[in-house]
Amino acid sequence: MRALLMGGLAVLLGGVLATAQDGPKRSGDEGRLLALESAWNHAETSKDAAALNQLLGESLVYVDYDGTLMNKKEFLDATLHNSVQQEQINNDGMTVHLYGNAAVVTGVYRDKGIEKGKPFQRHGRFTDTWVNQNGVWECVASQSTLISRQD
Fold this sequence. Notes:
The chain is of the alpha+beta class. The protein has helices at 2-46, 49-55, 72-80, and strands at residues 56-63, 69-71, 85-99, 102-115, 118-133, 136-150. Helix content is 40%, strand content 47%. The radius of gyration is 20 Å and the shape is globular.
């Protein structure tokens, strides 16, 4: 009986230790993905093509708030060569769901700037799908839904 109790305790302790070891990795990936989302906002605001290129996978599928569907090249062209002057893009309430080498990040965004000489503010929700390939997280799908817009 004592051997059975000790064996059960060893299995339980092993499970706790395994979970504890996975915790920092998961937290590290979650933190990394949240930082990548912020880096995306900064790169888009400053129209930093090199940074955006590193964040986005070659097979990116991007659905904008107005329903426009773009691949990576189209998204980069639209972002870098538009007449929008982004003043800020902020994310709130982000949640990361990890699935092995894939992750889904959801949240709320607010952006404001000047488009065609007029100020605007947008508020929406987004879902970004990230894939970790060879130790590098890349966004392969992004979709946003407009909640409100002020022109």
